[in-house]
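Run log // design_07
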């Protein structure tokens, strides 16, 4: 186990993902909320931070159980912190150091830099610099602009680096983390999808016993992997509910339901399309639509959960990025606990005990676990799809006819991406039905029909995104097919906005 203490850096989660890629388990905790079981952690990494050790809001970790007692790696702010408060000095950089740099000096015969040589590219992102090393420090590496780029403390297993090994642009970053964790800290590389499945199945059996568990399947990767894991652990005591809100992609409900049944899951498909459409009637405000869909889902799910006698647990596909406690820049830990409902007004199923088998793993690990479990790669590689579905891609109010039109357009676009081998190059794609009619000609007649927008983006987590440069020929073919085949649409446009400042969805 490796402990990562977070000081609010945008890269903290990346550190954790790199460590996990080495098949080493790690946890992120706020710098000022150390875990109770600190003795279980074999090594500690201090993250970077947007704060300065010279500022008014210095983030002070309590390192008394760590420093000199466990292998410690301090990154960026961490390195500056150790320097500034242990006999060294940190000053503002003359120039803000941001971006690629190369190691111009690497101390010979150091385990920490095993297989990393002078010239190696590293990623810098800091505005303070270490001008004097702390007491008992030995310089390990420099770049042209940053003399004190890496140091160790004599007599301790304490290492510090100014650059960011977790960022891909640090080409030997993973090697450096391996040198620290495997060579120096001697942490075992036993965290694999297989070992995760084995230990999670055992833990679920222990926790749930012979109780019944209910789980809402969405067709997405997380809920599917959570279901298959639970099914492996408790078999028929897992009751899955898959709700058709009438806003899914064309034929999605039937085909995904069949897939779930084929996987041996005990799943009930509930077609509540009409109920959702009725609740949405006349609503055009995006948040009102989201709320209506959320509330209707809760009602439908609650009705279904009541049909299962003696159910004790609600399973959810929550993943690690949703549970990491974030650190706010002014130093306070900001617990981001999502509370959708007021206590007291909770539907019955939300009073069940919660089980979240994926709460300690990242999205890429969910996919690897899914592959180990034998889930169809096509299902694991599906694009994300928003919970409110096509309702937030039909701008304005929703009618059955608009849903039908958009389903047809979307199917042509998505199937086209698959047929041309473009689907896996895109992170998310979909079509948007615009609330305007535009003029067209058909034969000698003028038409006033709908405009649709196509959107395809590249992203890693949806927080930022870039539009995808799809081939013109593909766009041309797709546009022709849509206009020829989908009655009611006479114009297709392609969205070339990035996020920020735009968002992925249009509502
Ligand atoms: P935006 O539009 O905010 O979308 O750039 C980022 C990601 O979130 C998805 N999204 C939603 N997912 N309920 C969801 O479950 C929603 O209301 C919702 N709105 C946006 C969006 O599809 C993208 O993947």
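design_07 sequence
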């Amino acid at each position: 186990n490796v402990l990562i203490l977070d000081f609010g850096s945008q890269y903290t989660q990346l550190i954790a993902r790199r460590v996990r890629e080495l098949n080493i388990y790690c946890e992120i905790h706020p710098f000022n909320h150390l875990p109770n079981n600190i003795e279980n952690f074999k090594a500690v990494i201090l993250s970077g931070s947007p704060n300065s050790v010279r500022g008014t809001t210095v983030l002070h970790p309590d390192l008394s159980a760590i420093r000199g007692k466990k292998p410690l790696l301090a990154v960026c702010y961490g390195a500056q912190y150790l320097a500034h408060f242990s006999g060294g000095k940190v000053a503002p950089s003359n120039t803000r150091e941001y971006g690629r740099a190369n190691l111009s000096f690497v101390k010979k015969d150091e385990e920490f830099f095993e297989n990393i040589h002078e010239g190696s590219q590293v990623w810098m992102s800091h505005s303070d610099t270490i001008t004097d090393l702390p007491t008992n420090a030995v310089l390990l590496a420099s770049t042209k602009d940053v003399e004190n780029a890496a140091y160790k403390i004599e007599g301790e297993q304490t290492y510090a680096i100014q650059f960011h090994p977790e960022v891909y642009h640090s080409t030997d970053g993973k090697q450096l983390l391996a040198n620290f964790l495997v060579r120096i800290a001697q942490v075992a590389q036993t965290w694999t999808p297989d070992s995760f499945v084995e230990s999670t199945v055992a833990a679920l059996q222990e926790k749930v016993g012979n109780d019944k568990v209910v789980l809402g399947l969405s067709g997405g990767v997380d809920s599917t992997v959570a279901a298959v894991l639970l099914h492996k652990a408790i078999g028929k005591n897992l009751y899955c509910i898959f709700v058709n809100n009438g806003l899914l992609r064309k034929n999605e409900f039937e085909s995904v339901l069949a897939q779930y049944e084929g996987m041996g899951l005990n799943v009930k498909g509930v077609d509540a399309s009409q109920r959702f459409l009725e609740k949405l009637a006349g609503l055009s405000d995006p948040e009102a639509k989201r709320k209506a869909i959320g509330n209707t889902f809760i009602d439908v799910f609650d009705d279904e959960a009541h049909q299962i006698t003696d159910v004790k647990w609600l399973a959810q596909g929550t993943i690690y990025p949703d549970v990491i406690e974030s650190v706010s820049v002014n130093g306070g830990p900001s617990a981001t606990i999502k509370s959708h409902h007021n206590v007291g007004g909770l539907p019955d199923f939300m009073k069940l005990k919660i089980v979240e088998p994926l709460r300690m793993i990242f999205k890429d690990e969910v996919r690897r676990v899914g592959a180990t479990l034998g889930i169809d790669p096509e299902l694991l590689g599906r694009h994300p799809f928003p919970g409110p579905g096509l309702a937030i891609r039909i701008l304005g109010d929703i009618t059955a006819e608009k849903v039908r039109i958009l389903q047809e357009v979307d199917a042509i676009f998505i199937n086209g991406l698959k047929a041309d081998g473009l689907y896996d190059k895109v992170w998310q794609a979909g079509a948007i039905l615009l609330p305007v009619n535009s003029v067209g000609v058909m034969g000698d007649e003028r038409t006033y029909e709908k405009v649709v927008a196509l959107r395809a983006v590249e992203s890693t987590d949806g927080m930022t995104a870039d539009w995808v440069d799809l081939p013109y020929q593909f766009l041309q073919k797709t546009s022709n097919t849509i206009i020829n085949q989908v009655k009611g649409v006479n114009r297709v446009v392609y969205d070339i906005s990035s996020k920020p400042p735009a968002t992925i969805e249009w509502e």
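Confidence is low (pLDDT under 50) at residues 331-344.
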